[in-house]
Known about the structure:
The protein has helices at residues 4-15, 23-33, 52-56, 111-124, 157-165, 191-198, 220-224; strands spanning 43-46, 62-66, 79-83, 97-103, 125-136, 169-180, 206-215. Helix content is 28%, strand content 24%. β1 (43-46), α3 and β2 form a beta-alpha-beta unit. By secondary structure, it is α/β, with parallel strands linked by helices. The protein has one domain (4-224): Vaccinia Virus protein VP39 (Rossmann fold). The protein contains seven helices and seven strands; from the N terminus they run ααβαβββαβαβαβα.
Amino acid sequence: MTPASTYEETYHQVRFAYDRRRAAPWKAIARYLQRWIDPNANCLELGAGYGEFSKAIRAARKWALDQNPSLPEYWGPEITPLIQDALAPLPVESSSVGTVFASNFFEHFTPEEGRQILGEALRVLKPGGRFIAVQPNFRLEPRRYFDDYTHKTIYTDEGFRGFLESSGFRVVHAEPRFTPFTMKSRWPTAEWMVDLYLGLPYRPLAGQFLVIAEPLAETAHTRGAR
């Protein structure tokens, strides 16, 4: 059997090889999302990949989670690496994180596994904290959705909203058309072009959605803290 670390490294080589050109679009995306992210609170990124979002966002302390042990070399010293299975408990204190962010992440898990991960996100988020996800939108890109052989679950913007709302969150902002399906497509790489694209009222070539949610006023772990 192939060791997990080798499998993860092979996946990044085959489907997600490092490309320095992704840094510029992610700087623009982080700048767009910063309005929903408290720069004085902690931030946790799930499935961080090469860490472009975590490096670009302003936050007090940053954690990045991934299974691939070769990725932290791309992250920089300001990011605390969490190299572990996403289904394992997070070594992060309850109610200590202002933002949990995930990009192209939940489609790699079953709904049951995704609900377990969201439960940990609820635990670590502080009151008023935010969960932010960027996900491929099956409604917009059904033909290419399973080009990635590790995709397990189909999500649309509406379906993911329901998934969050049934898992202890309330959606406060959503954009069904956020960015193109993949940065390998005809996606602009210059920061100013991405800024311009994100400012459009209608975004051509969009294949991913954005959703921002907050924990419901009272969740299981906050009730238990009384």
